[in-house]
């Protein structure tokens, strides 16, 4: 008998119990709660030739953009190649092969091909969504979901996930009202959907609704925090709301406890840590020896050459810790990578390398050089991935460089831009005041 998953797609190599475990792992992945890798391991232990469980495990490993996971994923791909796969499973194996090769754009297309024929393939959809995020493809963050949404019924398992993902895509495309509505619907359907809470946080971040955003995150902590492997990033968003209100001590408290309290070695968590400390550094906040611990974590990863976005966060950590030579070494590695032919080479060439150089120039007090590097970069920075909120660090660094260089007209212009987007932001108002001093 051919087994089917809970959305009716045939799966090979599985018994009923293994399918149940696989579906549990998908639910955990959908909500970013629990340990989907351990759950899918149980599915594979139950049915060792369960192709989609093996594929899901490979995706989970690769979804963190960590070099350390590639070898395990390669073993899983070899396993898949030894199985008799159906057409959909073969296409997943091909997408995984692209991911392992760092062909992120090709992997994204392959996942889209799967979804065109099977719009209910939620694994392809969520992995594709994450790749859209890593590739900075705002339009596809919204439209990959839009292409399948009408084919779903809200009673189907995982429907909330589509709404949460669509919400994030809408937010990244600037459609804040629809984004918030979609995210709140997702939360109504599933109170543990960590990605949907995250989409609301993004909407509030982009609109400068920092008090409301902090209240929302605090009020809903029971929904997005417990047992979530995405919680550090959501705590980071709460810290951003604190920073917007100039509550730097509150932001540091969040850094010390939920953000770095567990000393996570997960790269996504380390990205948030470095980004938060850098934002504090821009404001001249003394963060004590916090940089050292995070720089120690980043240092072994600078040879990874996997993803320029990560490399830039390594540079921040190394600079923050005063390890200028090591930061320069990372810039050299990015220079080498930028000369090659790959998706990451392009990301490095266009954004990663100039940004890393700008960060280094900032640390060295070469503020005019920082400005020259960052001004052309800010409007194309989406090419190396991440969200608007994450890439705001580029604008914040530029404003601070302009301030320190005495380029107060530039500070004023950038503050005007910022205040248009976030009219109530104390931070933006402070920049505007700084820029106004020159004009007075
Ligand atoms: Fe985010």
Strand percentage lies at under 5%
Number of strands: 2
Helix content class: over 70%
CATH class of the domain at 263-405: Mainly Alpha
DSSP helix count? 24
The appropriate CATH architecture of the domain at 263-405 is Alpha Horseshoe
Summarize, please.
The chain is an all-alpha fold and 440 residues long. 71% of the residues lie in helices and 1% in strands. It has a domain at 263-405: Serine Threonine Protein Phosphatase 5, Tetratricopeptide repeat (Alpha Horseshoe).
Structure description:
The chain is an all-alpha fold. It has a domain at 263-405: Serine Threonine Protein Phosphatase 5, Tetratricopeptide repeat, CATH 1.25.40. The chain has 24 helices and two strands. It has a two-stranded antiparallel ribbon with strand order 1-2. Strand 1 (3-4) and strand 2 form a beta hairpin. Helix 11 runs antiparallel to helix 12, helix 16 (267-282) runs parallel beside helix 22 and helix 18 packs antiparallel against helix 19. It is globular, with a radius of gyration of 22 Å. The termini are far apart. Bound molecules: fe (ii) ion.
């Amino acid at each position: 008998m051919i087994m089917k998953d809970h959305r009716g797609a045939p799966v090979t190599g599985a018994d009923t119990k293994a399918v149940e475990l696989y579906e549990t792992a998908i639910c955990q992945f959908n909500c970013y709660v629990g340990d989907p890798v351990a759950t899918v391991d149980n599915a594979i232990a139950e049915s060792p030739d369960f192709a989609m469980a093996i594929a899901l495990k490979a995706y989970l490993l690769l979804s963190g953009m960590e070099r350390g996971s590639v070898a395990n994923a390669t073993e899983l791909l070899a396993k898949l190649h030894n199985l008799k796969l159906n057409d959909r499973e073969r296409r997943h194996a091909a997408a995984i092969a692209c991911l392992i090769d760092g062909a992120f754009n090709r992997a994204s297309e392959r996942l889209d091909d799967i979804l065109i024929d099977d719009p209910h393939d939620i694994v392809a959809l969520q992995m594709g969504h994450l790749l859209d995020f890593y590739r900075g493809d705002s339009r596809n963050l919204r439209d990959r979901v839009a292409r399948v949404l009408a084919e779903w019924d809200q009673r189907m398992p995982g429907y909330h996930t589509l709404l949460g993902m669509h919400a994030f895509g809408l937010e990244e495309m600037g459609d804040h009202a629809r984004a918030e509505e979609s995210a709140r619907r997702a939360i109504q359907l599933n109170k543990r959907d960590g990605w949907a809470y995250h989409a609301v946080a993004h909407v509030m971040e982009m609109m400068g609704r920092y008090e409301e955003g902090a209240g929302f995150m605090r009020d809903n902590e029971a929904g997005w925090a417990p047992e979530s492997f995405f919680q550090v990033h959501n705590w980071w968003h709460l810290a951003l709301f604190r920073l917007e209100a100039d509550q730097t001590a509150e932001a540091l408290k969040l850094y010390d406890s939920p953000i770095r309290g567990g000393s996570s070695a997960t790269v996504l968590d380390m990205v948030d840590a470095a980004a938060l400390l850098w934002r504090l550094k821009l404001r001249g906040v003394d963060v004590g020896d916090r940089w050292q611990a995070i720089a120690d974590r980043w240092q072994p990863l600078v040879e990874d050459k996997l993803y320029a976005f990560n490399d830039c966060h390594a540079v921040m950590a190394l600079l923050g810790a005063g390890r200028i030579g090591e930061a320069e070494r990372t810039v050299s590695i990015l220079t080498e990578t930028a000369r090659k032919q790959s998706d990451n080479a392009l990301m490095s060439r266009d954004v990663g390398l100039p940004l890393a150089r700008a960060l280094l120039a900032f640390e060295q007090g070469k503020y005019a050089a920082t400005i020259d590097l960052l001004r052309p970069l800010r409007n194309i920075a989406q090419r190396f991935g991440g969200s608007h909120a994450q890439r705001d660090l580029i604008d914040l660094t530029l404003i601070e460089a302009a301030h320190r260089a005495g380029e107060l007209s530039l500070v004023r212009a950038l503050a005007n831009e910022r205040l248009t987007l976030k009219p109530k932001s104390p931070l933006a108002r402070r920049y505007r005041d700084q820029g106004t001093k020159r004009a007075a």
